[in-house]
Amino acid sequence: MLNLIADHLKFNYTVQQLVKDNNYGAANGTDSQGRDTWNGMIGELIKSRADWRWPRS
């Protein structure tokens, strides 16, 4: 599906790495400061281990 969208909108993309726990992301508790903790892709973004980049024109 991503290939079709990229072809239609004329952009390139690279998938660098899948998350280690193979989850999309779900709240899975709270930390010692009362903040929600997340697993999966959402957790990777929150922990700054992944990013989402959109090219600027």
Write out key terms for the chains shown:
2 helices, single chain, 26% helix, 57 residues, elongated, alpha+beta
Quick rundown:
GO terms for molecular function: ligand-gated monoatomic ion channel activity. The chain is built from two helices and two strands; from the N terminus they run H-E-E-H. The mean pLDDT is 85.
Helical/strand content category: alpha+beta
Helix count from the secondary structure assignment: 2
Helix and strand run: HEEH
How large a portion of the residues is in β-strands, by DSSP E?
5-15%
Oligomer: single chain
Taken together, the total number of domains comes to: 1
How far from one another are the termini? 24 Å
**How much helix is in the residues?**
25-40%
Order of strands, widest sheet = 1-2
Average residue-wise pLDDT: 85
The value of Rg in angstroms is 15 Å
Taking pLDDT < 50 over at least 5 consecutive residues as the criterion, the unreliable ranges are none
Q: What does the overall shape look like?
A: elongated
**Total beta-strand segments:** 2
Largest sheet: 2 strands, antiparallel
Describe the structure in your own words.
The protein is elongated. With 57 residues, the protein is of the alpha+beta class. It has a two-stranded antiparallel ribbon with strand order 1-2. The model has no long low-confidence stretch (mean pLDDT 85). It is built from 2 helices and 2 strands, in the order αββα. The longest helix is centred in the first third of the chain and has 8 residues, at 2-9. Strand 1 and strand 2 form a beta hairpin. It has one domain.
